[in-house]
Amino acid sequence: MEMTDRWCFTGEQKMEEKNTDKLLFPLSYDADLKETDDLKIYYQYLDEAFAEPRICNMAVSGSHGIGKSSILHSYDKKRQQRRDEEKNAFEKWIFKIPVLRKCKKHKRQKQTEPHFLYVSLGKYINDDTEKESEEKNIIERRILLQIYARFHKRDIEAGRFDMIQEPSCFGRLNANLGGLLILMILLLIFYQPLGSLIKSVVGKSCLLLKWKTQIHIFLYLIVFVAVVVIGRHLIYYMLTQMRLKNIAVKSDNTEIDIERSACEDYLDLYATELIYCLEQIADKVDRTVVFEDMDRLNQKDCIEIFSRLREINYMLNQRLQGEKYVRFIYVIKDEVLNELQHAKFFDYILPIVPGMNKRSSEDIFRENLKKVNKKLRELYGEAYEEAYGEILINTILFYTERSAEKSLVYMAAPYIKDYRMQYAILNDYGLFFGLYYKNNIKRLKVSKFKDMAEQILALAIYKNIWPQYYGKVTSGESIELFPTNVAKNKKLAEVLVDSRYQFLTYENLCYLGYSRDKLIYNITNYIKGGKVYRNQIEVISSFPGDEVHVAAINEFVDLEIPKNETDSNIEEISRLLAEIVRYYVRCDRVFESRVLDKRDIHLCLRTLTFLDEEEWCEYINKVKNEVYWLLDPEAGDIFDVFKNCLNVEFIATRTDWTEKEIEIFVYGTNDTEKYKGIRLHAKDFDGKPMVIDLEESIRQRKIQKVVPNITA
Asked: Which residue numbers delimit the YobI-like P-loop NTPase domain (predicted)?
């Protein structure tokens, strides 16, 4: 743990100063890292690399989310601070000279200090539907766009790429001059009708008529000069934009093919343009260009683009003199190094040691969670004194911070080893908690809602790790939190939905403002959507045992399943009820079971026959032990789990009983007085007819035949 804590600066220090009293954690890089001893070591190696003229192509390697960009941005800022200190020290010394002291107040305005040029590219979607060649061209075009977008036209005057700019005074002047030129041309074209008009209005004594020859000559000269100047600019522009593909000389004529795109790849097509641009802006970007997130793209394309950029860097530095070289820095993951000869490709590789692993992730997550909870206590602890706000929120939030082995943080954090993912989860957790707590504080009780904060945290984890499933569930498209086979983070999914802890259930959507009745309605409709009983059985078999699902199944049993044997699909109905009984037993919710309530006795017994002996015995035993079956003072120790079934009084009139049905019935009651003298006609396990003494069977707790294999 000491080694882990030592290197754990990249994420923790981001939060130490800025986010102690904040609810949210920014997901972008942090240029204000706390300068720890470990960070100073990285700075030292970067200083050495920047001072070495032979290092022009440099890699910063490490896995995603460990702080590579933050280190580079903070180092960039550190270099600016050093330049400012040196400049201030020089100015402090120079202004000690009496002659120059008077010039201090006339010191020119401070110019913007150079920053690294960052080119951030990446593919942040999870599918690969784009064509590889087309994608590579798009990447190269985006590289050029980001480089040019950083600067103005005045920085690269001869560049062919123009960004949209606000109209300038020079542009307005050109427009006015163009308007005057058009006016002069119109005067030269229509001078005769204009002369006639002037004669008719002012007479022949007008000065314009006396000097018309001189005016014509003057206008012709101006138009001629303007046309020459404009033509020169147009020809120059066209020649700089065109490329000669080939010149064919034939006997009769000469053919010249002009091609504007002599090659397919943008970096090849505009290599000279890019070299010129970087040469002009080198000092403005501290002679450093950083390429980030390109390793998220197609790996083959990424390496090809790196190769072209390396060639461009070599050609660029050939044009520069002395130590004024430009360095390219590639921020990549370690897997990229495996795909190329990295020791030869890069001049230097700076590895970034991960600050989070399976052990430290729990401590980091819990410490950041405490910071969020601290702010939540400040915001909502004193909001409603009548609801014991401070005591209530302290108790609720305590469960998320505890370090017990059964806590959510202890079980889930080892699977969340990415700083950005942890921060995104905590941001959502704080928001979800605040929205629900403030709107429901008056009805909250510690005994019922002690797991509330932990369940909201589980919901935030679910939203960020599996956003595709979260979207389907919250939109009502599905009620299944996870499909049968979860491909991504399967172990974490198992932790969240584990029935022993119930961190994540469908009922958690109530924390987002969904009503419990609406959730029950969605589940009931989902079951009915199976239409065929067989499909409904499959649906119910996959249900978790939370309260909302149990309530939905109770509603489905009451409203959708027939209570009498009038349906032609009686066997399928019995199988469906049997699956529901299994669900109650599996979830330990037998006390909420309504299968035996107001339903035909034969249908109930037939349902139980589709269960294994251990299953129906367990079910009947749990029903017998429920309080509401025993609260009959007159009955004493008498029990009868089938007393609420329909048509129990007509049990002796049926002749289609089976031995297994009677065996289950006998197991479920000990009321010999109620069934005194009743004999039942049934069939044994071999299908042969038999007569059963029901009273004696209940007394002996097993089937007692009157006349074996003889019908009465």
From this structure: 42-478
- Contacts with 584 (C-beta within 8 Å, 6 or more apart), sequence order: 550, 590, 592, 593, 595, 619
CB count in 10 Å sphere of residue 614: 9
Q: Which of 622, 620, 628, 629 is nearest to 663 (CA)?
A: 620
> d(Cα 79, Cα 88) in Å, to the nearest integer?
14
Spatial separation of the C-alpha atoms in residues 662 and 682, rounded to whole Å:
8
Dmax (CA) for the chain in angstroms is: 149
Residue 349's SS3 state is strand
- Please name the residues in contact with 289: beta carbons below 8 A apart, sequence gap of 6 or more: 116, 117, 119, 147, 278, 326, 327, 328, 329
pLDDT in tens, 351-368: 988 877 778 888 889 999
- pLDDT given at position 710: 46
Q: What residues have CB less than 8 Å from 4, skipping those under 6 apart?
A: 357, 359, 360
CA 6 to chain centre: 30
Alpha helices, H only, 298-388: 299-319, 334-337, 342-345, 360-380
Query: Which residue matches tokens 């305590």?
Result: 398
Amino acid at 500: R
Distance CA(431)–CA(413), nearest Å, equals 20
Q: pLDDT by residue (tens digit) across 79-115?
A: 888 887 777 766 666 655 665 555 554 444 444 556 8
Helix (H, G, I), strand (E, B) or coil at 117: strand
Confidence grade of residue 278 (pLDDT, cut at 50, 70, 90): confident
Q: What's the CA gap between 596 and 639, in Å, rounded?
A: 14
C-alpha span between 462 and 424 (Å, rounded) = 11
From first CA to last CA, the distance across the chain in angstroms is 82
Phi, psi angle pair for 402, to nearest 5°: -65, 150
Find tokens 């882990």 and name the residue.
Answer: 4
Question: For 242-290, where are the alpha helices, taking DSSP H only?
Answer: 266-269, 271-281
Give Cα separations from 17 to 12, 90, 258 (angstroms): 10, 32, 61
What's 673's DSSP letter? T
In contact, 487 and 453? CB cutoff 8 Å: no
CA–CA gap between residue 375 and residue 396 (Å, rounded):
14
Helix (H) or strand (E) segment spanning residue 538: helix 533-541
Which of 64-68, 203-207, 331-335, 615-619 has the largest mean confidence?
A: 615-619
Q: Which of 522, 582, 594, 520 is nearest to 554 (CA)?
A: 594
User: Which residues, at least 6 apart from 213, have a Cβ–Cβ distance to it below 8 Å?
Assistant: none
SS3 32: coil
Both tokens assigned to 382: 């004193």
Q: Are 580 and 610 in contact (CB under 8 A)?
A: no
3-state class of 502 per DSSP?
coil
Which one-letter amino acid corresponds to residue 307?
S
For residue 37, what is the enclosing H or E element? helix 37-51
The residue written with tokens 């913007």 in the block is 112
